[in-house]
Amino acid sequence: xxxxxxxxxxxxxxxxxxxxxxxxxxxxxxxxxxxxxxxxxxxxxxxxxxxxxxxxxxxxxxxxxxxxxxxxxxxxxxxxxxxxxxxxxxxxxxxxxxxxxxxxxxxxxxxxxxxxxxxxxxxxxxxxxxxxxxxxxxxxxxxxxxxxxxxxxxxxxxxxxxxxxxxxxxxxxxxxxxxxxxxxxxxxxxxxxxxxxxxxxxxxxxxxxxxxxxxxxxxxxxxxxxxxxxxxxxxxxxxxxxxxxxxxxxxxxxxxxxxxxxxxxxxxxxxxxxxxxxxxxxxxxxxxxxxxxxxxxxxxxxxxxxxxxxxxxxxxxxxxxxxxxxxxxxxxxxxxxxxxxxxxxxxxxxxxxxxxxxxxxxxxxxxxxxxxxxxxxxxxxxxxxxxxxxxxxxxxxxxxxxxxxxxxxxxxxxxxxxxxxxxxxxxxxxxxxxxxxxx
Length: 439
Ligand code: AMP
Ligand code: GLY
Prior knowledge:
Elements: E1 2-7, H1 10-19, E2 27-32, E3 42-43, H2 51-60, E4 65-68, H3 71-76, H4 78-84, E5 88-90, H5 98-101, H6 103-112, E6 120-123, H7 126-131, E7 140-144, E8 153-156, H8 159-171, E9 182-185, E10 191-199, E11 204-206, E12 211-212, E13 215-217, E14 221-224, E15 229-232, H9 239-260, E16 266-275, E17 278-285, H10 292-297, H11 304-312, E18 327-334, E19 367-371, E20 374-377, E21 388-391, E22 395-403, H12 406-418
Parallel strand pairs: 1-2, 1-4, 2-3, 4-5
Antiparallel strand pairs: 6-9, 7-8, 7-9, 10-11, 10-16, 12-15, 13-14, 15-18, 16-17, 18-22, 19-22, 20-21
The structure holds adenosine monophosphate and glycine (GLY).
Residues 118, 141, 153, 185, 187-188, 192, 214, 271, 282-283 line the site of adenosine monophosphate.
C-alpha cells in the first residue's frame, strides 16, 4: 500500500510513525510534512488546503490510501474529492465535516438527539446579541460558528469583555464569515477530557481517554493555544464514568448519525466537560486532536492501518483494538512569543539524543520526539550546522514518553525536554499535573 497523509503537525508525525509499523504499508507520503516526518515519509510540497494539488499528487504518486489530519481540508470536502479520483480515504466527508466546521450544526444535532451539552442560543444580528449580553451569566461563552484555527471561542469575564468580543466578531469580523453566526452558551464547570473515537457507519469505538492543556502558561494562565501538552489516560475517567460517557454520549451520537443520514467515517473527537451533573459535550472535532494523538497513539498496540482500512469498509466492529497498560505524557516545546508572533528559522539543538523512530516505545527507548513546526535548512552563515533542523512554526516539537506509571511517564518526558534547546524555547512545567479549572 502507498499511503498519503495530509498535514504537517505532531499529530501527523505520530500517525505516520504508527503507519510505518504496519506490514501492509509499503511507502508513506506526506503533504506537506515537516523535518521529522521527512525521516519516515516522502514529503510532497503541496499545502493541506490545496485540494486540487493533493488530488494531482495522489494520482502522480499512485496513492492507494489517504489519511487526512487537519480540519480545514476536511471542511473543504477533500475526502469526497479524493474518493472521486479513486483514492480510499480515512476521514469524514464534507457533509459530516460540518460537525466541526459549524458549531450551530453540532448544537442542533446534540439538542435533537438529547445528548448532554450546554444550553445555547444563536445570533446573526449584532444588536440582538448585544441585547442578550450576559444571558447565561458570566463568564459568557461566545463562539464564532465557523472554523477559526481554535481561536473562535471567547470566555468573557464581564459585560465589558463580552461587548468587546461581540464587536470584534460581528463588527470588525476578525474571524471573517466564521463569525457571521455566533453561538452563546451556558458556561459549564468541571474538568475537561478528550475522548477520541473511531467511527464507521455501524460502530463507535472510543480510544483511550486523554487530557490536553490549552493555555500557554503554567496554572492554565494566558491565552489559548493549539495545545501545550497532553497525557493519556485521563486521571479522572474511571470505568463507571467511561460507561456513562458511552451510554449517554457516544452511543446516542452514533444513533443520531444514523437517524440523520450522516455517514460519518473517521475519528470523532468528543471534547467533554465532566460536570457535577455528569459528562457533557463541549464540542465535536472530526479528526485526531493535537497533541492528544501523540499521547494516545504512543499506547496503541494494534496496526493503525488495519483500523483505518476497516473504518473505510464499515468493518470497525471486527477489529480488536488493543492498548498498552503504559501511561503517556507529551510536552510541547513552542517558539518564544507563541501564540502571538514569533521568529522562525532558529536552529534546534539536541535532537541527536533521540532515536528518530523506535519501532515501539519500551523502557529502554521510552521517549520519542514528534515534530510540528520544523524544517531543514541547508547550511548558511558562519557557525551554523549543515542541514540543520530549524523552527518553522509556533508549536515546534512534542516530547512524548511512556512509563509504567503516570509519574514515570511525566519524569521521562521532562527529562527528554532537558536535552533539547533552541533560542526562545517555551514549555509548560505543569504538563501531567491535574489541570483544575481556574475559578
Ligand atoms: P472549543 O473550541 O469549542 O473547544 O472551545 C475551546 C475551549 O473553551 C474549551 O476547551 C473549553 O475550555 C472552553 N469552553 C467552550 N465551551 C464552553 C462552555 N460551554 N463552558 C465552559 N467552557 C467552555
Ligand atoms: N487539542 C485540541 C484540538 O486538537 O483541537
